[in-house]
From TrEMBL:
Species this chain originates from: Ambrosia artemisiifolia (Common ragweed)
Assigned keywords, A-Z: Coiled coil, Ubl conjugation pathway
Homology family: Belongs to the NPH3 family.
Pfam families in alphabetical order: NPH3 (PF03000)
Residue ranges that the Swiss-Prot or TrEMBL entry lists as coiled coil: 332-366
InterPro entries associated with the record: NPH3/RPT2-like, NPH3_dom
Region of interest called Disordered, as start-end residue ranges on this chain: 383-424
Domain NPH3 as annotated: residue spans: 24-298
UniProt key word Coiled coil: yes
The protein's name in its UniProt record: NPH3 domain-containing protein
Length: 424
């Protein structure tokens, strides 16, 4: 059997080859059963000055070879019967996996871009499953957080293996990853459009975990608020996740609904989402009114912009038509197209405003009915109280104002005068 060359031997490493081919060149031999021998061989490769991404590819290929779950593909029968090893107990296999993952994490290159994000997430999932030491898990979380913008939703759906929390997925892990990434973004270590990708991932993740009835409101709000508000270009995905959470958790109090809906910026909702929110009975009335007022403000701003556009000479404000187009016919065509689009938008916004005014009218009508019913109830109560007081004081209800109290009449007729008899 051919063994890998020892670290001390003079060997030319295939640095210029593609990453996957170089990894297979060194690790396709079935003799690498001892992980200690692999660590020594890897140290020799590092001493030769091999690129970190190639070392990360070697580690990835080795780990996926001996733990098929790390490859992301279902294990084939060939991988389970390659080494003809006797069957192990569940505890021995569990401990072996834990030791193997801890060793793999310890030999990763210090460069955070050495290993792909998908492999790191599968490694982190297995580390939580087998109960790896907290120091190794923290190291993996740092590496995953560094490349969180390259993750996918399917890889982030890591189950919760703890017996303390009853949730289906490890929401606390997702909160830590997002907060680490945002801290690096604020410190200037990460720049670009990565934070917008992370915001989309968070909203999609919230929509998936919102159907879990065991997910507490503080955890949901903490994850939703971990992303800065400027990272969301639109709040439609966040609104969809909150609506799903409200639909699942029907026993929420009014105060909890208000707290949850404060996360939505009504000015960032699209027209479709605003229409849905205006007719959503699960939202508090204050949130619905906020959406309606923001849409009305948008309508007024669009109308003002249309007026300023009609007064200008060019569809591109501030520019002369001859600076961007040389043909007067093209200028007229573009102007007509822009005016047609603006008219369609204004008509659409007017329809939306009309529907919103109908909703506001319905809400105000409900309030008027409530207050009129309350006034009628109070007047009837006061009339009943007056009748009771009159009966207690001894008044005859049928002759109030015409008769004197009964006690007065009895008092005057109690001691009649004695008439003197005449002697004549």
């Amino acid at each position: 059997m051919n063994h890998l060359p020892s670290p001390d031997s003079s060997t030319t490493f295939p640095v210029d080859r593609p990453t996957s081919l170089a990894a297979k060149c060194w690790l396709d031999d079935a003799c690498i059963v001892d992980i200690d021998h692999f660590v020594k061989t890897l140290s020799g490769i590092k001493a030769k000055g091999v690129r970190p991404d190639l070392i990360g590819s070697i580690i990835t290929h080795y780990a996926c070879k001996w733990i098929p779950e790390l490859s992301g593909d279902p294990p084939s029968p060939a991988t389970t019967t390659d080494h003809h090893s006797p069957p192990e107990s569940a505890t021995a296999s569990w401990l072996k996996k834990r030791f193997f993952i801890e060793t793999i994490v310890s030999v990763l290159p210090p460069e955070k871009d050495a290993a792909p994000c998908s492999f790191l997430l599968r490694l982190l999932k297995t580390a939580h499953m087998v109960g790896v030491d907290s120091n190794y898990r923290e190291e993996l979380e740092k590496r995953v957080a560094w490349r969180l913008d390259q993750a996918t939703l399917k890889e982030l759906m890591i189950p919760c293996f703890s017996h303390v929390h009853g949730t289906l997925f490890n929401v606390g892990l997702m909160v830590r990853l997002v907060k680490r990434y945002v801290e690096m973004e604020l410190d200037g270590l990460r720049t670009g459009a990565g934070v917008f990708k992370v915001a989309k991932l968070v909203d999609a993740y919230l929509a998936e975990v919102a159907v879990d009835p065991e997910l507490a409101l503080p955890e949901f709000m903490e994850l939703a608020g971990a992303v800065p508000p400027q990272a969301r270009a639109t709040d439609d995905r966040l609104y969809r996740a909150i609506d799903t959470y409200l639909k699942t958790h029907v026993n929420m109090t009014k105060q909890e609904r208000k707290m949850l809906c404060k996360l939505i910026d009504s000015q960032k909702l699209s027209i479709e989402a605003s229409l849905h929110a205006a007719q959503n009975e699960r939202l508090p009335v204050r949130s619905i009114l906020r959406v309606l007022f923001s849409e009305q403000a948008k309508l007024h701003s669009h109308i003002d912009w249309n007026r300023s556009f009609s007064n200008s000479k060019s569809p591109i404000l501030g520019l002369d038509p001859h600076d961007w187009c040389h043909s007067s016919r093209d200028i007229m065509t573009l102007q007509q197209m822009e005016i047609k689009k603006l008219k369609e938008n204004v008509m659409k916004l007017e329809r939306q405003c009309h529907s919103m005014q109908v909703q506001i009218g319905k809400l105000s009508e409900k309030k008027k009915r409530f207050f009129s019913w309350r006034k009628l109830t109070m007047s009837s109560n006061l009339q009943g109280m007056g009748t009771e007081v009159g009966n207690e004081q001894g008044y005859d209800s049928s002759s109030i104002g015409r008769q004197t109290p009964l006690k007065g009449k009895q008092g005057r007729s109690k001691t009649p005068k004695a008439w003197r008899q005449s002697t004549s």
